[in-house]
Amino acid sequence: MRIGFDVVGNIAIIKFDRDVSLRDKKKFSVKYLKEHKGVTTVLEKVGKFSGRLRTLKTKWLTGEKTREALYRENGCEFRFNVDTSYFSPRLSEERKNIASFIKKDERVLVMFGGVAPFAVVIGKNKKAKEIVTVELGKIPSKYALENVKRNKLTEIVSVVQGDVRKVIGSGKKVFGEFDRIVMARPNLEDSFLDVAFRVCKRGTIIHYYGFYLDAEISKLKDLIFDKALKSRKKFKILRIVKAGDIGKRKWRYRADILIL
Q: Which of helix, strand or coil describes residue 217?
């Protein structure tokens, strides 16, 4: 029996092969629960992340009947519903890496902020002057507010609920110039780079995430060049690194872009 799983705090989310019977799934989940004391709920993943909000569909198998996880990483604590709020524990090291780049008194924007994992981890290093995290979903935004309070970061982290295209830019809720922009975007056709360019200045660094096969890395470079040209922005790509796999030979790449 082949399985894959993610453990998100107190919740284990199991992905079974299609031919595994419900009886075997239950048997495995009960055994898993007994062997992992920190896990109190076992769910089955019954669909992929879908839609702009990247929501998940799960089925309860055993343990406490809840979808609400309490998860800890990088000295931070997060609460969220695994079905209604996208969260990837596999990005823990990536969030730590981004936080390590922050310089004293930076103004940081996090687009597609979810339940605020990037904003909170960045905030914990005590270097940023201000962090604004923008999230489309109403439910994830409520958890983001809770997580900011939970980690005692209300003085430097602000949560804005809304579409990045509608709330970022001159005369909008999120305005001015940022020193650093984190674009942990969903796997959509829209790059949203033009939105980030609205609040850039000379010296701004954009951490842009794109999803490509190994042989397609040139497409990422071409995309950045095209969007920058249309927005009349001069730039330099500092580096392109792999920031996690999302499928067979397909990777989440991070391009670090310096605005000139």
A: helix
Burial 154-185 (b: 16+ CB within 10 A, else e): eebbbbbbbebeebbbeeeebeeebbbbbbbb
Report the SS3 class of residue 153.
Answer: coil
Query: Any bridge partners for residue 62, and if so which?
Result: 42
Instruction: Work out the pLDDT band at 1, boundaries 50, 70, 90.
Output: low
Decide if 205 contacts 180 (C-beta within 8 A). yes
Tens digit of each residue's pLDDT (9 = 90 or more) over 161-190: 999 999 999 999 999 999 999 999 888 889
C-alpha to C-alpha distance for 15 and 58, rounded to whole angstroms: 10
Q: Note whether 124 and 183 are same-domain residues.
A: yes
Q: What is the CATH number of the domain that holds 41?
A: 3.30.300.110
Do residues 177 and 147 lie in contact, with contact meaning Cβ atoms separated by under 8 Å? Answer: no
Number of other residues whose CB lies within 10 A of the CB of residue 213: 12
For residues 85 and 188, the model is more confident at: 85
Whether 80 is covered by a domain: the verdict is: no
Instruction: In whole angstroms, give the CA distance from residue 67 to residue 64.
Output: 9
Whether residues 228 and 108 fall in one domain: yes
> Contact, 119 vs 157, CB < 8 A?
yes
Element (H, E) at 242: strand 235-247
Query: Is residue 206 classed as helix, strand or coil in its secondary structure?
Result: strand
Q: Are residues 152 and 208 in the same domain?
A: yes
Q: How much is the pTM? A: 0.94
Alpha-carbon span 202 to 215, nearest angstrom = 32
